[in-house]
Design goal:
Blueprint lengths: L15 H8 L6 H13 L1 H19 L9 E8 L9 H17 L2 E9 L9 H11 L5 E4 L9 H13 L3 E4 L7
Parallel strand pairs: 1-2, 1-3, 3-4
């Protein structure tokens, strides 16, 4: 776990990563927490960014999206590392999860895009780019993922993807987060 710099000067800004960890309750150590909170009180730039981060995290935690029965959906699966003994096992398990969610909700799953051996830190993944092209073409109304980390691990990247989907009227369904079907 990355530690917040306890010697942070007011001229240094808090990283987005630390703001996310703070609002998700991942910073609990007083040695780490006290300087961060002190800096937030002294720096208006970081305070504004912290409020925006908190609003976004609250949005993710509180939103429930229930797609229309009969919606046309695609799935997206990603595994950063694949097993040498069975390279498809993780992707197949994620695909099975997506199919179960779609079936239970009465959603027509038309395709599953996949990225094998691709990190979520890279948004230029072939499967993700194909998914974005399908969204842009207006051919789908729902994207189903096993969990939001399959799309992106960075909340900034995730927010941009979610905003892009929302602008096109596409719902995101996560099989494991507290929102979705």
């Amino acid at each position: 776990m990355q530690k917040v710099n306890p010697d942070r000067k007011n001229s240094e800004h808090i990283t987005d990563h630390d703001l996310e960890r703070y609002h998700l309750g991942m910073i609990v150590d007083e040695i780490e927490l006290a300087p961060l909170e002190e800096h937030l009180l002294a720096c208006s730039t970081c305070t504004e960014r912290a409020e925006a981060t908190a609003d976004y995290i609250d949005l993710i935690r509180g939103v429930t999206i229930v797609p229309t029965i009969g919606a046309r959906a695609v799935g997206y699966v990603r595994a950063a590392a694949v097993s040498h003994t069975d390279p498809r096992s993780r992707l197949d398990a994620q695909t099975a999860t997506i199919r179960s969610v779609a079936e239970a909700a009465g959603i027509d799953l038309v395709s599953v895009f996949e990225d094998a051996g691709e990190s979520a830190n890279n948004t230029r993944r072939p499967g993700l780019l194909a998914l974005l092209a399908a969204v842009a073409a207006g051919r789908i109304t729902v994207v189903i993922v096993p969990d939001l980390a399959r799309l992106a691990r960075d909340t900034g990247d995730l927010r941009r993807l979610m905003d892009s989907f929302a602008r096109r009227g596409v719902s995101i369904v996560s099989a494991t987060e507290s929102w979705g079907v």
